[in-house]
Amino acid sequence: KMASDSPESLMTLCTDYCLRNLEGTLCYLLDNETLRLHPDIFLPSEICDKLVNEYVELVKTDSIFEPHESFFTLFSDPRSTRLARIHLREQIVQDQDLEAIRKQDLVELYLTNCEKLTAKSLQTLVSFSHTLISLSLFGCCNIFYEEENPGGCEDDCLVNPTRQVLVKDFTFEGFSRLRFLNLGRLIEGVNVETLLRPLASLAALDLSGIQLNDVGFLTQWKDSLVSLVLYNMDLSEEHIQVIAQLRKLRHLDISRDHLSSYYKFKLTRRVLNLFVENLVNLTSLDISGHTMLENCTIPSMEEKMGQTSIEPAKSSIAPFRGLKRPLQFLGLFETSLCRLTHIPAYKVSGDKNEEQVLNAIEAYTEHRPEITSRAINLLFDIARIERCSQLLRALQLVITALKCHKDDKNIQVTGSAALFYLTNSEYRMEQSVKLRRQVIQVVLNGMESYQEVTVQRNCCLTLCNFSIPEELEFQYRRVNELLLNILNQSRQDESIQRIAVHLCNALVCQVDNDHKEAVGKMGFVMTMLKLIQKKLADKTCDQVMEFSWSALWNITDETPDNCEMFLNYSGMKLFLECLKEFPEKQELHRNMLGLLGNVAEVKELRPQLMTSQFISVFSNLLESKADGIEVSYNACGVLSHIMFDGPEAWGICEPHRDEVVKRMWAAIQSWDINSRRNINYRSFEPILRLLPQGISPVSQHWATWALYNLVSVYPDKYCPLLIKEGGIPLLKDMIKMASARQETKEMAR
């Protein structure tokens, strides 16, 4: 069993079920709109935290899941529902949601990129001040803004009813237990020093993406601060001196995105030496994206040869020879240092090899999509050119990044491309069902959120790596809707169109009739006919044209509703036009006649095929040598069903019924009984119904020939089918019939 294949925990399954069925489980609807908790429900924080965090995850990553206006009000009373640690993200959370849970004693509150939160929520935070230990406001860019109504509102109100004003007087006064704080991407204009001053003993502080020219105030926590993140801050000598005084630091991140803007600061040997000498507890350091002003490397002659080593004494980076022990983590992404031989760290992020690249994706996904997309791009190259050695880890990291940054175009493009290479056949054996389903989910999410050509193409290509329809069965409706959506767009990319039609065709091949009916109702038949119409207008018969007819052949198989739709949307007109425009295209003829064979099996629809024009066309196709016997065989099949309705149903003068019958006999006799076939029967029922009748001996003969050919050329597949569907007694009875032709009886015997 594979590591990732263990089933979900019962807790996870129950949480998921309750969230998808709130009304049937924990809640009832008040006045048909507000969700209310049943009065006898009491839930501890272990369950409530999971409900809230899973809810956020579902709203974010599951397009079918509907968010509830009043969800957070379920947790407004700590006497029945307790919350302690919750992680909220993006647009899902608004001021009133936080307001609803203000009575809870939260210990940990992560608000990540919650752009809808305003200064109203700052006031709500105060209600948690006596219990909060951990707080993240990362990317909450409006939380320090309040709306101000301009005084003396005359005409001005209509133009500018509310103005955004920066809140200047908020501080963390009273947050006596707060130890961990993330203010990443805080908007300019907020005085960080004043904001933080009341905090007695900070242990971790993240100031990512904030530019502070004076960080001297950090020394007030020099006895408590163990983690400091200054990502993308342009540093100076003053910053370095302050950092060197924070002796308790275990984790220091001064990395930057080297593409984001101009930085004056350059790293030197002296700065690294200063860190190593002063920050003796350091276990994790990130200097990704920095340019080294001078060479910090040990000359290669002096390097100890042999195995690569993480021993500080052998370090290829000179300043790190002073470390007491190897670092747990060293961030060197997009620096020249990551390519050196001996790096004194257990985990290194960089761009040298798969391990370093995966470490980078893992470390930066949550808060640094701009870096992550470049790391995934490197992984894409590794997966494409070499072989991935940590496949499961790579897949899981890419899935996480795609889920986390559903609206980030760069990540969607590089991630979907990487997935294509990571799911292809050579990696197939190593992947569990659960993992492959997760891939399908994120691929469909990508197709849903992005009309962008590259993402659509990558997603469609990735789906081609799966066994269709089996592996897509669990998302059957959704995947069909998305593909039809792509095919119905007015402007289309040729390659996407080709892949999408191929997928549609595969999805309706060998599936149950209820699936086919459902897809038919989604507009499948209409979509395919539109594609055929377009191709016909361009006079091109390409794969799209052939796949479209093939898909119609598949979707009409034993599905009368779809056959009727085909006729109602002038399918026959298109059939005749295609036949005339492309007289030499054998594949096309086979697909079109296979489809008409399905239509002819439906008794109620046969009268619509009873016109001089159609009957002449079918009769002439009896002589066709296209695709072996397939076109002739299918034409004869169509006519066999029509003949089965008897002479009184023959409502045309030309061609004459007897003349057509004669041509049918001649055609059947010309076929080689050992022909290998380009056809796939799921059921013999439509053929078997032509056996017990005396009205049309030629139809009986065609049916017997078909069965004889299939069971003799493919005995393993078709003998069991013939027995299972009761064919043997039908053949025995037919041999006794006076009206049956001698050669038919011979074949039946």
Automatic annotation (TrEMBL):
Residues 402-748 form the Protein zer-1 homolog-like C-terminal domain. Keywords: Acetylation, Leucine-rich repeat, Repeat, Ubl conjugation pathway. The keyword Protein biosynthesis does not apply. Residues 194-335 form the Zer-1-like leucine-rich repeats region domain. GO terms for cellular component: Cul2-RING ubiquitin ligase complex. InterPro entries: ARM-like, ARM-type_fold, Armadillo, LRR_dom_sf, LRR_Zer-1, ZER1-like_C, Zyg-11_UBL_adapter. It comes from the Eukaryota. Interacts with the ELOC-ELOB/Elongin BC complex. Part of an E3 ubiquitin ligase complex including ZER1, CUL2 and Elongin BC. Belongs to the zyg-11 family. PANTHER family: PROTEIN ZER-1 HOMOLOG, PTHR12904. This is Protein zer-1 homolog. It comes from Scopus umbretta (Hammerkop). The lineage of its organism: Eukaryota, Metazoa, Chordata, Craniata, Vertebrata. The gene is Zer1.
